[in-house]
Amino acid sequence: MVRLAAAALAASLIAAPALAEPVAYTVDKSHSSIFFSVEHLGFSTIHGRFGAYDADIVLDEDDLANSKAKVTIDMSSLDTFWDARTEHLKSADFFDVAKYPEATFVSKSFEKTGDDKVAVTGDLTIHGKTKEVTIDFTVKKVGQNPMAKVRAIGLVGTTTLKRSDYDVAGYAPAVADEVPLRIDLELDQKQ
């Protein structure tokens, strides 16, 4: 009976239609952002962004396990909208951008967690330190981009990082250790 069931399963897999291939996407940087925020002394929330980054993203909507992403952030593109603070964060007191010019995220897994939810887990390297993080994405929209004339996907990702995990925890606890991160992405299918 077990052999018969195994034979039937093997036959069904062989006869199954081929699944769609994974698809490469580019980030529409004019409609995408990487933002962070951090609490200061309990009085205010400071916001910042990274303006320069590159991403290689391949998505397999039929089997998310075949998806992958690699993001490289130019740390010199950090901006907190106040020049003196921005330059201080780039200094050796925090990110030491001269020594660590890039941060990277390399995915390890994609997992569907709801009707419009995907968790992407991977290794995030900042300031020479690598930690595994999970970014929870909500799919806003999937469809034809009427301007670019290609298939597009809109996503919003969130996670919270700890500065101390990356040895950039200066001035804690006056400046909070936990840093919420938000990633707004508009992805266009590569041509």
End-to-end span in angstroms? 50 Å
Main beta sheet strand tally, sense and closure: 8 strands, antiparallel, barrel
Number of helices: 2
Helix fraction? Answer: 10-25%
Low-confidence stretches: 1-19
Written as H for each helix and E for each strand, in order along the chain, the element string is HEEEEEEHEEEEE
**Which descriptor suits the 3D outline?**
elongated
| Overall mean pLDDT | 91
Number of E strands? 11
Round the Cα radius of gyration to an integer and report it.
Answer: 20 Å
Return the structural class. mainly beta
Explained architecture:
The protein is mostly beta strands and 191 residues long. The chain has helices spanning 2-15, 83-90, and strands spanning 23-27, 33-40, 44-50, 53-59, 68-74, 78-79, 102-114, 117-126, 129-145, 150-162, 178-189. Strands 1-4-5-7-8-9-10-11 form an eight-stranded antiparallel beta barrel. The radius of gyration is 20 Å and the shape is elongated.
